[in-house]
Amino acid sequence: MFGHIPGLLFYPRTEWQKIANLSDEKIKRLLPYPILMSLLPALGFYIGTTKIGWTVSGENVVRITEASAIPLAVLTYAALLGAIIFIGLMVNWMSQTYLVKTFPIKGIVAIGYACTPIFLAGAFAAYPIWWLDITLGIAAGIYTIYLIYMAIPLMMHVPGDRGFLYASAVFMVALVYVVVVLVSITIIWEYIATPVFID
Q1: What is the pLDDT of residues 179-188, one digit of tens each?
Q2: DSSP string, 15-46
Q3: I need a surface site. Which of 1, 10, 80, 165 has the fewest CB within 10 A?
Q4: What is the per-residue DSSP string for the chain?
Q5: pTM of structure
Q6: Which pLDDT does position 36 carry in this prediction?
């Protein structure tokens, strides 16, 4: 299950082909991957904000209380895993348009593995250096988009031109989800799970 990580990072086309060639039963066994890997950013966030803290312009270290960090970490996990499940289900739903026979878990697994760079970059939140985390986050987001565009044609067995359109539709769904999550985070941060800072 975790053995696909190096391949996705260093020779993704070959690795996607390996995953695409797996039987349906073996693909179903890969479902725990996004469930477990989604924990990395949430745990990184929790450790970084409660144990290590961050500074603004070299000033005092800022931390939040563990009690206020727990709900935020849980919501981070739920948002990331929810994104993978929702977008994966949309991959399955859109397959009818592209005349592809698939099943819901296959879409979730494809998106879960495509999000590998985001999982790994999220783990760096355990040591919150803003410029590093932002740089890694942007790089991980770009590489994840690249992996999605590579995964859809191979995993769903569609020709390159239709695969590009299919992947573009998936990307649009992902953008909508991100906007919804950002709005939700703002509301939750303000009214429900407000962080409590440590002086």
Answers
A1: 888 888 888 8
A2: HHHHHHTS-HHHHHTTTHHHHHHTHHHHHHHH
A3: 10
A4: -GGGHHHHHH-HHHHHHHHHTS-HHHHHTTTHHHHHHTHHHHHHHHHIIIII-B-STT-S-BEE-HHHHHHHHHHHHHHHHHHHHHHHHHHHHHTTTTT----HHHHHHHHHHHTHHHHHHHHGGGS--HHHHHHHHHHHHHHHHHHHHHHHHHHHT--HHHHHHHHHHHHHHHHHHHHHHHHHHHHHHHHTS---EE-
A5: 0.92
A6: 96
Q: Distance between CA 76 and CA 80 in Å, rounded?
A: 6
**CA dihedral sign, ordered 187, 131, 116, 65:** negative
User: Exposed, middle or buried by CB within 10 Å (0-12, 13-18, 19+), for 193?
Assistant: middle
Per-residue model confidence as pLDDT tens digits over 38-96 = 999 999 999 999 998 887 666 788 889 999 899 989 999 999 999 999 999 999 999 98
